[in-house]
Structures are given as structure tokens and as C-alpha cells.
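Just scan my protein:

——
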Amino acid sequence: MAQTMTDATARYWARRAGWRACKARGQQHINNLGEYMIVDDRNCVVNGQNFDLSTDDVVELAKGKVYSRIQIADQVISIKRKASNE
């Protein structure tokens, strides 16, 4: 059975990715489904414009961004090492 992430975990991973996870407040309606929206540092919606992301969705998206950033940094370092050895 999949483990459901907590609010704090979703917010933690969103911060690590450079985002902010905003929880819906107020009455639910067609544009507010009561879950999360991810916004960047310029308050632009990254995903979940209708507050339709679960905590698991937020964590999954943020981890994908964080770990892809790490892989890109590793590739840049290896390219620089090859260039300095030549």
C-alpha cells in the first residue's frame, strides 16, 4: 500500500525544488478542489491550477525536479573534468 505524504513533507520537497506548495483554503468549488497548487518564486503556477494536486503529487514533482538538477550538475562536472584533463 502506498504511503500518503504529510503536508509538511509536501512543503519541504516543494521548497527544495524552489517552489511553494499552497494549500487550498475556503469552500470547494470548480476551481478549488481542496488540495495543493505549486507556485514558483514569481507566483506563477507551476502545476495544480485548480488546487488538484495531492501531497503525493507535490512530492513526486518536486523530487523529479531536484534529482534532475543533481544529474545535470554531475554531467557538467564530468565535462569540466574531461576538458581539464585534455
User: Anything to note?
Assistant: The chain is about 50% helix and 15% strand. The mean pLDDT is 85. The CA atoms of residues 35 and 52 lie 5 Å apart.
